[in-house]
Write a structure and sequence with these properties.
The chain is an alpha/beta fold and 325 residues long. It has 2 domains: 145 residues, 3-Layer(aba) Sandwich (Rossmann fold), CATH 3.40.50; 161 residues, 2-Layer Sandwich (Dihydrodipicolinate Reductase, domain 2). Helices cover 37% and strands 23% of the residues. The protein contains 12 helices and 14 strands. The protein has a 6-stranded parallel sheet with strand order 3-2-1-4-5-6, with helices on both faces. The protein is globular and about 60 Å long. The chain binds L-homoserine. The site of L-homoserine (HSE) has 11 residues, from helix 7.
Length: 325
């Protein structure tokens, strides 16, 4: 076996632990977690063999670490750590959709200027390999539309309200206890989390950084039990649908609750599952469905990025990026 590459891991919450558990199942991979940076050293942890610190510099300035995996939920701190790690000549994997979605101009600069790679499959669609597919597989054909369910928590809430007549609050609490929701669940239910994911997909699909100011975003909090009952009586469901379209002039992004019928490909996508359909000019419509939230599915996407990094993979988007003001 090759000498293992050393990983510095930021964060040991839901996704961090999911990544750790997934990596443990692949002892053949030439990579080991060498140091973990967490905010609180006093909390009880799994992973007794791991070295924990609360000093980010112990990871960022360690020349022996050549891969940083950033899985914290503080977007501002994450941006600083990612940039410092890239500047220090380390490869970086992240799952931070807020940080990436809000900083796509900087991200495109990082992709363009650094030789070291920055991957983030887990930032969109949990365990679904959508960033990689949009960026790589479809790169030589035109994508005309992306449409899907991009937030597991809001889909879980709407599903429980429709199938089991749960209250919104009960369903949200359950989504939180299952580790699907963000620390601030407003991001999930408001459509903002899905909008970050949509803008990341826009960047990879069109090579452009969309202006999030022009996004039309609507929360599921406006959906009442009555709305759901009415939809159900007609054999329909309410889903939080994210849509991305490209016209000659602009990129149109919307995230809003829609009432859909059984012929819609999103109709049977329930609970924390996500689905993303990619419409292409040459090969038609492709629908990706899978678990969009949760420790192990999201951790598995981080592991896939690690495998790609070990194979020398980087995104193709930097070759065609164009910034939209
Ligand atoms: N809170 C997010 C969701 C986690 O529910 O989809 C996965 O990005």
């Amino acid at each position: 076996m090759k000498t293992p590459r050393k990983i510095g891991l930021f964060g040991f919450g839901t996704v961090g632990k999911g990544f750790y558990e997934n990596l443990k199942k692949h002892p053949h991979l030439p990579a080991i977690i060498s140091k973990v940076c967490v905010k609180r050293l006093d909390l009880p942890r799994i992973g007794h063999e791991l070295y924990f610190t609360n000093d980010p510099e112990e990871l960022l300035s360690d020349p022996e670490l050549d891969i940083i995996v950033e899985l914290i939920d503080d977007a501002e701190a994450a941006k600083i750590f990612v940039e410092k790690a890239l500047l220090a000549g380390k490869h970086v994997i992240s799952a931070n959709k807020k940080m990436i979605g809000e900083s796509l101009k900087e991200v495109s600069h990082w992709h363009y200027s650094f030789n070291h790679h920055f991957l983030y499959e887990a930032a969109v669609g949990g365990g679904i390999p959508i960033v990689h597919s949009v960026d790589g597989f479809f790169r030589d054909q035109e994508i005309t539309e992306i449409r899907g369910i991009l937030n597991g928590s809001s889909n879980y809430i709407l599903t429980q309200m429709q199938l089991n007549q749960w209250d919104f609050d009960k369903a949200l609490k359950e989504a939180q206890s299952k580790g699907f929701a963000e620390r601030n669940p407003i991001l999930d239910v408001s459509g903002i989390d899905a909008s970050y994911k949509l803008s990341i997909l826009a960047y990879h699909a069109f090579g452009e950084v969309p202006s999030m100011k022009s996004f039309e975003i609507e929360s599921i909090e406006s959906v009442t039990k009555e709305d759901i009952k009415k939809a159900k009586s007609k054999g329909r469901k309410i889903k939080l649908v994210a849509t991305l379209k490209k016209s000659d002039q602009e990129i149109i992004c919307t995230v809003k609750p829609e009432t859909i019928g059984p012929n819609d490909e999103l109709y049977s996508v329930d609970f924390e599952n996500n689905a993303i359909s990619v419409e292409t000019l040459i090969s038609g419509r492709h629908v990706f469905v899978g678990k969009g939230a949760g420790a192990l599915p999201t951790g598995s996407a981080v592991l896939e990025d690690l495998k790609r990094l070990l194979d020398g993979y980087s995104y193709q988007v930097s070759k065609r990026v164009k910034t939209v003001s």
